[in-house]
Amino acid sequence: MPVPVRTEVLRKSIHMLVALVPFAASLNQGITLALLAAGTIVYTYAELLRCMGVRVVLISRLTAMASRERDLGRFVLGPVTLGIGTMLALLLYPAPAASIAIFALAFGDGLASLVGKLFGRIRIPHTGGKTITGSAACFAAIFLSARVVGASAETALAVAFVSTLVEMLPLKDLDNILLPLTAGTTAALFAYMQI
C-alpha cells in the first residue's frame, strides 16, 4: 500500500472513532464533553511541544505517522477541529440531530477521503482535489447513518445532500467543524418542520 494511502487509512481510522461519542454521550453527556475537551487540550499541548522539537510519548509518534504532506513541519490542526466539531454537535443539537452530525463527521468525511484516495479517478473542479467517487461515498455514508439513527428518508436525503456539498468545499481541516454543524442544523430543521 503506498505511503499516502496508508497515512490516510490511519488518519481516517482515528477520525471515525468519534462515532463512539453518541453512545458515550447517551451514558453521560457531561463526562463525554469533558473527555473530548481534555483530549483536545492534551493534544494541542503535545502538538505545540512537538513543533518545538519536544517529543511526547505516543502522541508525537501517532501525529507524525498520520500527518499528510501538507502537514509536515507545522502544527497539525485536524485533531483539534475534530474535537471542536464533535463537541459543538453535542452542545448545539438534541440527541438525534447530534448523532447525525457526529456520524456525518465520522463516516461521511472519513469515507469520502478514503474512498476518494483509493478509487477516485475523476476530480471535481474547484474542490481542491475531491473526487466524484469520494463525494458519492460521503453522500451514501451520511444518508445511511442518518437512517440508522431514525431520520426519515426525506431528512436523510437533505442532510446527505447539504453535507456532501459542504464536504466538497476545499476547507482543509475546517470541514471538521462545518460538516457536523451543517448536518446537525439540517437534521434539526427537518425534525422541527415535521412536528
Automatic annotation (TrEMBL):
Transmembrane segments: 20-46, 75-94, 100-120, 132-165, 177-193
Keywords: Membrane, Nucleotidyltransferase, Transferase, Transmembrane, Transmembrane helix
The keyword Transferase is annotated on this UniProt entry: yes
Domain of life: Bacteria
S-adenosyl-L-methionine found in the keyword field: no
Alphabetized GO MF terms: ATP-dependent diacylglycerol kinase activity; nucleotidyltransferase activity
InterPro entries reported in the protein's UniProt record: Dgk1-like (IPR037997)
Protein name (Swiss-Prot/TrEMBL): Phosphatidate cytidylyltransferase
Organism: Marispirochaeta aestuarii
Source taxonomy: Bacteria, Pseudomonadati, Spirochaetota, Spirochaetia, Spirochaetales
